Amino acid sequence: MDDKVIITCAITGGMTVPAQSAAIPVTVDQIVAEGVRAAEAGASVIHIHVREESTGRPVADLELFERVLSQLKERTDAVLQPTTGGGQGMTVVERGAIVPRFRPEMATLNAGSFNFGLYPIAERDLDFQPWEREYLEGTRDYIFKNTFADVTYLAGLMAEAGTRPEIEIYDVGHLFNLRQLVKEGVLAPPFNLQFVLGVLGANMVEPDQLIHMLRTAERLFGVGAFTWSAAGVGYPGEFQLAALGLMLGGNIRVGLEDNLRLRRREQAGSNADLVEKAVALAALFDREPATPAEARACLGLKGSDDTDF
Ligand code: KMH
Ligand code: ZN
Which option is the CATH number for 4-117+144-306: 3.20.20.70, 3.40.50.150, 3.40.50.1950, 3.40.50.720? Predict the structure, then answer.
C-alpha cells in the first residue's frame, strides 16, 4: 500500500461554530451531501459529528447520527467513522452511546485529557449567535476529559461492538497512556493511530513534534504495530502536516472539522475542496487515494454489512 494513502475527511466536527464559515455543514442533508462529495473527491474514511440542525450547536443526538449514517451508507462505500469525542459539555456516556447503537466499523477513541482552547476565536469580528460566543469563551476553562476510566469504558464498548478504535493522539504523553492501557489489557496492537496536532492545549504542528511522536510510538510498540495518520488543525498546519505525513509514508486527514482555509486568503467552499487539494498533494509524492476496500483491508475493519444502521 506504499503508493496508496488513506485520506480521511472530517466533515463538520465539534470545535468550530457556523459563524466562522458558511461552508460548515450543519443539517443532516448538508453533512450527508458533504460526505458523499468528499468520498467522490478521494476520501475513503468519513469522520462524522452531528449538530443541532436549527442552531449548528455540536450535539451527540442519536437520531441525527442515525439519519446521517444510514443516508451516507446508501450513497457511498467509504468507511463511516463517527466520533466518540463529541463536543463541549457531553458526558462520556453520551459520547459513547453511538457505539452500541450503531456498531460502526470504526470510531474515534481519544487517548488522553487536555485543555481544548477555542476561546481566541471569540475575539474575532464575526456575527456570532449568543450560544457560539459562549461556547467558544467556555473553552477558556474547559478540559477535554479522557481519563483512564473514560478510555477504558469507551474501549470496552468498541470491543463489544467489533468497532475498531481510531486512537487519537494529541501529545506524546498519550502514547504512554496507551502503553499503560496495553499493560492493563484494555487495548492491544495492531492499533490505528491518528496524530492530531494543532489544538491549543496540546501539541502543535511542527515537523519535529510529529516525528518525535511517530518515533516514540515505534519505540514503544514496534514499527509494524500500528497504522497511522496525521491530522493538522488550522491553516497552514493541515496541509503542512499532510505533506509531512505523505513524505513519511503515513495516511492523512483533512476537512472542515479541523481547518476552514483552502489557501492563505481563501476559505474552503466545501470539504471536497480540501480533499481535492490533499489528493493533488499526494500525487506530488507519487501516492494516490486508497479505495474504501483498500482502506478496510489496511485498517482491519469488519465491513459495512456488520453495522447497525
Ligand atoms: N476535532 C479534533 C481536533 C474526535 O472526534 O473524537 C478532535 C477529534 C476527536 O476529531
Ligand atoms: Zn472529530
Answer: 3.20.20.70
